[in-house]
Structures are given as structure tokens and as C-alpha cells.
Amino acid sequence: LADWLVLLVQGGQASEADRASHLTEAIRPTLLQLGQALAECPWDKASLAAVIKQVLAAAGLKMPQLAMPVRVVLLGTPQTPSLDAVIELMDRGLVLERLRQSSP
């Protein structure tokens, strides 16, 4: 539990293998789009879920195609509980900064 709390507060660092596998050039624009959309929405699970669904629809992606890269960017791991629930628990500034930094 303590390890998860550290990840939620500080974020995590992904392995090179996870970064190479999940943070492709194809997904980077969608990560930036998600960050921009999250910057404008209320910070509650329902609103976050709605924004994630909107970004998925606009990009023509399925949840795992976006969720795994977002998890790698935010927490350093492709596997976490529900993405909207995890994001809600994290600091908004940290989430937005990490998504912004996900694309060079």
C-alpha cells in the first residue's frame, strides 16, 4: 500500500522497456490531447471518465491503447486500477505536467 501511495503522490519512473513499448510516436499526440482536455475538466472520477472517453473517441482508440501509455507516463507501470480513479487521486499539476512532458 505504501508503494502505491508514493506513486500517487510523486508519480513513478517507467522502465526503458515499458517506455519503448507504450510511448510510441503514434500515441504521443493523444497523450497531449488528453492533457489539454484534463486541464479543462473538473477533477472528479465521473468528469475524468467522460474526458477519457471523449479523447478515445476522437482518436479512434480503445481503452488499453490509451490507458497503458497514460499509466506508464504517470505511474511508471502499465498496470493500475481504473485509470479515472487513479488520476482522481493524483495531484492535478503532476498529471498535467507528466502528460505534457510525454512528448518531446
Question: What layout of secondary structure does this protein have?
Answer:
Blueprint: H1 2-10, H2 16-22, H3 28-39, H4 45-59, H5 63-75, H6 83-89, H7 92-101
Helix pairs in contact: 3-4, 3-7, 4-6
Report on this model:
The chain is mainly alpha-helical. Helices cover 70% and strands 0% of the residues. The protein has helices spanning 2-10, 16-22, 28-39, 45-59, 63-75, 83-89, 92-101. It is globular. The termini are far apart. 27% of the residues are buried.
Structural class by sheet pairing and helices? mainly alpha
What is the molecular shape? globular
- Poorly predicted parts: none
Order of helices and strands: HHHHHHH
> What's the gyration radius in Å?
12 Å
Strand content: under 5%
Largest sheet: none
| Separate helix tally | 7
Q: Count of DSSP E strands?
A: 0
Mean of residue pLDDT?
91
Distance between the termini: 33 Å
Portion of residues within helices: over 70%
What attributes does this structure have?
104 residues; mainly alpha
What's the short story on this structure?
70% of the residues lie in helices and 0% in strands. It is mostly helical and 104 residues long. The mean pLDDT is 91.
